[in-house]
């Protein structure tokens, strides 16, 4: 069950604490990942957050042995000291590392594979 009322998540999420850089234009914020799915990411909120909400972001997640994941996203919400991003694009170089990372942290591997299939259909 979600900690945030009204959330309607369609993809399996994994709570993972990893470093993430949020890039927009010439700005970079160094944050922490809260959770991740194939379609969304939550991070903690920077103390100074002066981003352009309607412009895209690039999120670079330090995924340890899986390398750096680069995901392109738009900000969906800011609440309870966290940022919620909708992933707009996962390029082919990032799909397998994302799958491997998530597979270690989700409880339902069948649901994860269904999520990956949905992602493949979006490309």
If you had to describe this structure to a student in words, what would you say it looks like?
Residues 7-102 form the PilZ domain. It comes from Congregibacter brevis. This is PilZ domain-containing protein. InterPro entries: PilZ_domain. This protein has 123 residues and is α+β, with helices and mostly antiparallel strands. The chain has a single domain (14-122), classed as predicted glycosyltransferase like domains (Thrombin, subunit H), CATH 2.40.10.220. 21% of the residues lie in helices and 40% in strands. It has 2 helices and 7 strands, in the order βββββββαα. It has a 6-stranded antiparallel barrel with strand order 2-3-4-7-6-5. Strand 2 and strand 3 (27-36) form a beta hairpin. Helix 1 runs antiparallel to helix 2 (109-122). The termini are far apart. The relative contact order is 0.20. Residues 1-8 have low confidence and may be disordered.
How would the blueprint of this fold be written?
Elements: E1 14-15, E2 19-24, E3 27-36, E4 40-44, E5 57-62, E6 68-79, E7 82-89, H1 92-103, H2 109-122
Antiparallel strand pairs: 1-3, 2-3, 2-5, 3-4, 4-7, 5-6, 6-7
Helix pairs in contact: 1-2
Pfam family, one: PilZ
Domain PilZ: 7-102
Organism: Congregibacter brevis
Global morphology = globular
CATH architecture: Beta Barrel
* Rg from alpha-carbon coordinates: 14 Å
> What structural class is derived from the secondary structure elements?
alpha+beta
Helical run tally: 2
Structure summary, number of beta strands? 7
Mean pLDDT: 87
Strand order of the largest sheet: 2-3-4-7-6-5
Terminal Cα span: 29 Å
Helix coverage percent: 10-25%
DSSP strand content: 35-45%
Q: For the record, what is the CATH homologous superfamily label?
A: predicted glycosyltransferase like domains
Taken together, the total number of domains comes to 1
Regions with pLDDT < 50 over 5+ consecutive residues? Answer: 1-8
């Amino acid at each position: 069950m979600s900690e945030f009322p009204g959330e309607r998540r369609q993809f399996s999420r994994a709570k993972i604490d990893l470093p993430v850089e949020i890039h927009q234009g010439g700005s970079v914020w160094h944050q922490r990942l809260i959770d991740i799915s194939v379609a969304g990411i939550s991070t903690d909120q920077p103390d100074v957050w002066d981003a352009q909400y309607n412009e895209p972001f690039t999120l670079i997640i330090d995924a340890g042995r899986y390398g750096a994941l680069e995901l392109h996203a738009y900000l969906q919400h800011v609440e309870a000291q966290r940022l919620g991003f909708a992933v707009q694009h996962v390029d082919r170089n990032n799909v397998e590392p994302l799958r491997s990372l998530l597979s270690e942290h989700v409880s339902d591997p069948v649901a994860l594979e269904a999520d990956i299939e949905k992602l493949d259909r979006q490309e």
